[in-house]
Design goal:
180 residues; alpha+beta; Immunoglobulin-like; six-stranded mixed beta sheet; 12 strands; 44% strand
């Protein structure tokens, strides 16, 4: 068991070392263009995924995913989101969102697929759970290459902790840079 955990975490460390871009989003937000990874959050006693919502901008160049996080008993999570690792692979056109210590989710793979039915970015989805490592993974197969922006939102008395993940056409960044 300890060996399996060591191999699991070592493989993530190796993956991060190979990735051209690896960013720690503990400072609240991070942007990733091209192949690479973003990680953040804090380890805890376990948590759950309460909901995932998708909202597309009118221009169809930006899609915001909001993942609401709860504690292990599906109650609102106060404080920092649990540990996450998001990898963007432009070669395989997929984004993998790993939630470590995620014990369960209030939605299943079929519901996840429905949430992305009209997405301009996501072609298909898979939801995987590894009970040994308590990792819940959302695999997004992309229609086209996308940049990723992650904002980590702490939970408080008014709202649960959440991750806001923006999928965007990388041309949006270039437009912002030229306007300055």
């Amino acid at each position: 068991m300890k060996l399996a955990l060591f191999v699991f975490f070592f493989s993530f460390a190796a993956l991060a070392a190979v990735s051209p871009q690896t960013k720690n989003s503990l400072r609240n937000s991070a942007v990733l263009t091209g192949t690479g990874a973003i990680r953040g959050g804090l380890a805890g006693k376990g948590f759950s995924l309460l909901d995932l919502n998708s909202k597309v901008a009118k221009s169809q160049k930006l899609e915001r995913l909001t993942v609401s996080l709860g504690d292990s008993e599906f109650q609102p999570h106060r404080g920092s989101p649990g540990y996450f690792h998001i990898e963007n692979s432009t070669d395989s056109k997929q984004i993998v969102i790993n939630f470590m210590q995620a014990i369960n989710a209030k939605f299943d793979e079929k519901a996840l697929q429905k949430k992305f039915a009209s997405s301009p970015f996501v072609k298909s989805t898979r939801m995987l759970f590894d009970p040994e490592t308590q990792t819940l993974s959302l695999v997004l197969q992309m229609k086209k290459q996308a940049g990723v922006r992650v904002v980590s939102v702490n939970g408080n008395k008014q709202q649960t902790a959440m991750l806001k993940i923006d999928l965007f056409e990388e041309s949006l960044l270039k437009q912002k840079r030229t306007k300055r």
